[in-house]
Design brief:
By secondary structure, this protein is of the alpha/beta class. It folds into 2 domains: about 1-110, PurM-like, N-terminal domain (60s Ribosomal Protein L30, Chain: A, 2-Layer Sandwich); about 120-210, no CATH class. Helices cover about 30% and strands about 20% of the residues. It contains 6 helices and 7 strands. It starts with a strand and ends in a 9-residue tail after the last helix. Mean pLDDT is about 80; it is low at about 185-200 and about 210-220.
Length: about 220
């Protein structure tokens, strides 16, 4: 956060990762929604984004890159900010994400370092996306026998959903902190601070795979 005038400050964040779904358009949309989550968590409003992409031009057609960029651009437009440019390099593995700039009043800035032990942790989305995607990727590659891969439709639904509405509904003066859970775990795992709210939310399908002792490699 950098104060630029009076109580007005800018908040900046950057995030990018490798594909977690097969559809390039959805990958772009998921990456963009994830990138802007930190801006919402700080109580800021996104105003502009820059795209960051890496792409294996000797392996995949440029149409795939175009779809990734389109997915990210349309998700940014849904969030109300333009992608003003960016930078692309040639790499062995596709990667995509955004650097996002937002504006926020210093008086309304929310930090991720001010929560205290005993605080109630309110989750705006179910947890379990990472486990579900990991199970899907592992089982579709037939590394763990012939089990049927899980459906990832619900996970994709949540990963492409912006946290904007949840951020706009925030305003309880008792709120001490906020942060984006970018590598969500199922209930029972250790969390940065606080405790779960009474209404626990997770993706039921993910529970089955969380109990299966298979090695998975997602970074979501």
């Amino acid at each position: 956060m950098v104060r630029i005038s009076g109580d007005l400050a800018i908040a900046q964040t950057v995030d990018f990762f490798t594909p977690i779904v097969d559809d390039p358009y959805l990958f772009g949309a998921i990456a963009a929604a994830n990138s802007v989550s930190d801006i919402y968590a700080m109580g800021a409003t996104p105003i502009v984004g820059l795209a960051i992409a890496a792409f294996p031009t000797d392996i995949l057609p440029l149409d795939v890159l175009q779809e990734i960029l389109r997915g990210g651009s349309e998700k940014a437009a849904e969030a109300g900010f333009p992608i003003a440019g960016g930078h692309t390099i040639i790499d062995d593995v596709p990667k995509y994400g955004l650097a996002v700039t937002g504006v926020v009043s210093v008086l309304k800035l929310v930090r991720n370092s001010t929560a205290k032990a005993g605080d109630t942790l309110v989750l705006t989305k179910p947890v379990g996306n990472g486990i579900l995607i990991s199970a899907y990727r592992a089982l579709t590659r037939k590394r763990f026998g012939r089990r049927t891969p899980p459906s990832v439709e619900e996970a994709v639904h949540w990963m492409t959903m912006l946290n904007r509405d949840a951020a706009h509904r925030r305003g309880d003066p008792r709120q001490r902190g906020s942060g984006a859970v970018e590598r969500p775990r199922l209930p029972g795992a250790r969390l940065p601070a606080g405790r779960y709210a009474a209404q626990r939310r997770d993706i039921p399908e993910a529970r089955r795979y969380s109990r299966a002792r298979v090695r998975i490699h997602a970074d979501v």
